[in-house]
Structure prediction request, 113 residues.
Amino acid sequence: MRRNGRRGPAVAMALAALALAAACHPAKAAPVLAPGAHGPAVRDLQARLAQLGLFRRNPTGRYATETATAVRTFQHQAGLPTTGTYTTADRTALTSRTRKPHHSALFPDRSDN
Prediction:
């Protein structure tokens, strides 16, 4: 900044470039998960639901009936629309009530089954 408090042209251009980059590359949103989904995001969801006592199996990474039922129960308890589909609003509510699952919670010892 200059002494008079005004920004020089180089600073103004840099700020404009940052704003343009942010507009062109928005933050990646969390995926919506529904029955039939699979992968690490589902495994994380199941482990977080287990922390609340809503998912009583080892995480599988497959979004099937038991996961949808647990999501509906969570949604009801949290005052969210009860759909069984895990949305970004559900993710915000769930992550505020749980901690990031440790590897051992995501991949428990299968010899206990």
About this structure: The CA atoms of residues 43 and 61 lie 4 Å apart. The chain has a mean pLDDT of 86. Residues 40-112 form a domain with the Muramoyl-pentapeptide Carboxypeptidase; domain 1 fold (CATH 1.10.101).
